[in-house]
Amino acid sequence: MKKLVTIFAFIGVLAFGASKSLAQDSADTTKAATEAAAPAESTVTEVASSEAAPEEEQSFHQALKEQFIAGGAAFMWPILIVFIIGLAIAIERIITLNLASTNTKKLLVQIEDALAKGGVEAAKDVTKNTRGPVASIFTQGLMRSGEGVDMVEKSIVSYGGVEMGRLESGLIWISLCISLGPMLGFFGTVVGMVQAFDAIEAAGDISPSVVAGGMKVALITTVGGLIVGMVLQILYNYCVSKIDSLVNKMEDASISLIDILVKHKLSK
Known about the structure:
Layout: H1 2-37, H2 44-57, H3 60-70, H4 73-99, H5 104-128, H6 133-143, H7 149-168, H8 171-203, H9 208-267
Helix pairs in contact: 1-4, 4-8, 4-9, 5-6, 5-9, 6-7, 6-9, 7-9, 8-9
């Protein structure tokens, strides 16, 4: 529940920031239009220099906002919302997966020392005080240590599947956003092309000025959807690789834990 609240709070902050930025940009555009409508009192040279200055000072952020507005709010806002949701889930997964990492070698040494000094209960105290899925699996295995090594192995395998499911939770939604982003972009492309052909039909002539509006919407929405898909795909692949690494560590550490338990019982 806490993770879900965090994700929606992150989405709200980003959406509010984007809305505020677009509103500010719209206000600046209106102000500039009002000032341009006023009677010109400067010379032609001054007007030319004043027009050249904003073009030079235009930042990447301002250019991005202009392209967002030009793409049409009906098409660009859904793409932006999908990107924000996918990015929020991906960031939450990345943080969770990095926090789930455990130094398995150090943990195994601590467990072996605890088994030698205080037995299974001392080893369980070590695993319970350690964060991560590896420690949770060790705890389940140690709880079944009195029932034999076979039960320990079965318990580790069963609980390992549970922990793997927890690690993979949320990836399906990132995958959905990866698919939706380009699809929404292509939808805007189709609609833009339809608008272009409608304009051609209404004008009865094929000219660049007639089809430019629809073509621009088509191209901008396509670019926006592809950017969303590419960025989220990179984050998705990072999460998958991190999960694979954690699963491999869990399997190797589980084998080492069973060896330690066998050695401990044989030594007794």
